Amino acid sequence: MRISRPGPVSQRQWTPVTVVNGGLAFALELGLLAALCYWGFRTGSSTVTRVLLGLGAPALAAVVWGLFLAAGGPTFRLPLAAEIALKLAVFAVGGLALNAAGRPTLGLVFGALALVSVTVEYTLG
Description:
The protein is mainly α. The chain is about 75% helix and about 0% strand. It is built from 4 helices and no strands.
């Protein structure tokens, strides 16, 4: 199994599998933001806390993703192993947020799909 950085979107070799995986990856990124928003609005003990968590957690995830993991080329390039680990960790947070918000099955499915997507992305490029 070859593990390599996919590279900028415009320079990738697109096959039916990588096209489907690109769509899945984008859906997972949006799902991550939605999961964190859902968790935040369900977790807070007061209205102010709910709003801060519901908007702040997705915003923080978006900043981390944009700085280190963006498909078009991140602002700060990490070593390959760190990039894969960070991507898996961020997706794991989304799955854990769904679990904590009372949606354990959805969290498990989200995590499994994220694992498959990251594996395909870094092995098929």
